[in-house]
Amino acid sequence: MLRRLLFLLLITLAVMFGVGCQRAEQNTKEKESPPTTIEQENEQGKEEAMWTFPLTGMPASEKTMQRVVAVMVNNYPTARPQSGLHKADIVYEVLAEGDITRLLAIYQSEQPDVIGPVRSARDYFIQLSNGFHALYVCHGWSPEAQRLLQSSSVDYVNGLFYDGTLFWRDRTRKSPHNSYISFENIKKGAEKNGYAFEEEVKPLPFFSNDLTRAVEATNIDVVYSKRSYAHVHYTYDGTKYVRSSGGEPTVDRETNTPIAVENVFVVEATHEVIDDYGRRHIDFTSSGKGYLFQKGTVQQVQWRNVDGRLLPYQDGVPLGFVPGKTWIQVVPNLQQVQYE
């Protein structure tokens, strides 16, 4: 009997010792085990949140290596509405001849199926494009632009050499207001010429500005001449600035998507007519005065050319853009701009 009790006691102690060791081993493994699935998902979310598109500051699912593409877009009244402007990260509007402006659409975060009408190059637009090391797309060129493009210092695709292949003509519009191209054909043009189509893009400054000196401004008028087609208007809808031109909403031709942006940056630059045709030289190398419209407010600023990019400053301190899209209006005189 005593022997049987001793045997049962030994078995009980062995079981208790085994369970204790197992629990200790489990605790050790738990301490050494990798993060749980939820923790891994959180860490992955943090990594994804780190990536942003360099020219909009908006979240991206991964690091983007799309090279910037800059396209000359026609803004003659009969060329409206244009195609693909709603997907541009940045658009410069600058006078070409007379009171007609031309648009330089900068693409990086989005690639539209159709862009146009594509128009001829001007040297100061090429300078703006070079600030992003962009692949420059045009259809035709001025003498100054031709010399600059043929100097081998700029990667470009010109519709003069690809009319009917990479570029096509819209029969519902008259030349020269009917040349179009797709982003896919731009890529083909880059491949034909041996141009890189991927590279790391330096980001614009995106951060919150001190708005204590800002003034409320929910309506903006930029008047390039007395003619109504040369009037640009922006209305702030509480989130974005919705654009119209010539009294008509600026929309995408194919989708009817309105043009609405987070930043309107107005730049005053010296303009000089250089020939009988009315072509201009515009000084983008010197600094000057400007307005920065954000979040329904306006601040008086100075602009500087920083590595080819026009950026806002105030009292020598750089200002940031609101994450989103930006239109830059270039005018000879800030008196052409009214706001309320």
Automatic annotation (TrEMBL):
Pfam families per UniProt: DUF3048 (PF11258), DUF3048_C (PF17479)
Domain of life: Bacteria
InterPro entries for this protein: DUF3048_C, DUF3048_N, YerB-like_sf
Region (Disordered): 24-46
Segments passing through the bilayer: none
PROSITE patterns recorded: PROKAR_LIPOPROTEIN
Signal peptide stretch: 1-24
Domain DUF3048: 55-195, 220-328
Keyword set, alphabetical order: Signal
Protein name: DUF3048 domain-containing protein
Organism: Anoxybacillus pushchinoensis
